[in-house]
Amino acid sequence: MSHQTGIHATPDLREFLMKARRGAVRVVKIVIKSEQLVLGAYREASQSWDQDYDACVLPMLDCLEPCYILYRLDSQNQLGYEWLLISWSPDQSPVRLKMVYAATRATLKKEFGGSHLKDEMFGTVQEDVCFQGYLRHLSSSSCPAPLTTAEQQLHQIKITETEISVESKNPTLQGLAFPLQEEAKHALQQLKLKRINYIQLRLDTERETIELVHISPTETKDLPSRIPTDAPRYHFFLYKHAHQGQALEAVVFIYSMPGYSCSIKERMLYSSCKNRLLDEVERDYHIEIAKKMEIDCGECLTEDFLYEEVYPKQHALKQAFTKPKGPTGKRGNKRLIRGAGENLDES
Predict the structure, then answer these.
(1) Rounded distance between C-alpha atoms, residue 269 and residue 43, angstroms
(2) Contacts of 138 (CB under 8 A, 6+ apart)
(3) Pick from 31, 201, 337, 347: CA 20 to 30 A from residue 155's CA?
């Protein structure tokens, strides 16, 4: 853009900026006159940068004319004091003038020395560039960029992976192992002996244990009401049914996770602990799990659904490909093709 405008600083402005960088000047106003960058005004420092700010910057602003404000901070880098560049472009100023200033900003930064600039700010009203406006600018600049939903979940997963302590767990490739609380252990023993027919368990993420929720007697028709709509749970159900004329019983494990109403941390922990819990139940309590299923709501837990899960229908074997028959009927006489140079005997 600076190449398009062809506007550059006057020799007097270059000399003044060189002196200003040494630290005596607090604020410099630069304007464009006769297609040149010229000194508009300046003020020397009297107090700290934050105390000087409004008293030095605001009087420099014209509600009808754009300008550049170079404001010296008290911090320093290897080249000297650090500066703030304010591009002032009031709404009431002519559009062409605002375009010229926008196109020349890169030239000004080159003339002054971009390495001396710590920050840049743009404003159209005084509230944008006053001291409080600058503080708001600093706050917004330090905030992370907006994330999509997927990025937020990925970010939260990374945080959760760091937060989860593994001191009381045995992490393996199969997942985490939260220890069973005593009441939960006793309930599994009772289920093994078929003295109860339903167990509901939950994870205590603070204590890092698996807790018993309840062992209320449950029939198949009661299962949908046992599934919470706002929290994940593990369920063991002794499914009593008839199959091929025989009365049978089978233990079914149900992992209920009500979709995205649960936190990412909960979803991760329940998913990670599930396999280790099932291994422990089958190995230590000798409970054979006939079917393991995962659901997001209890409405699907009907008698027919459970039966088909425990006894899935066998898929019919696909028939082997059979070559289709050719068309029926007279297909005509075979044709005799004469080779080159051959003659047929005439009868």
Answers:
(1) 61
(2) 119
(3) 201
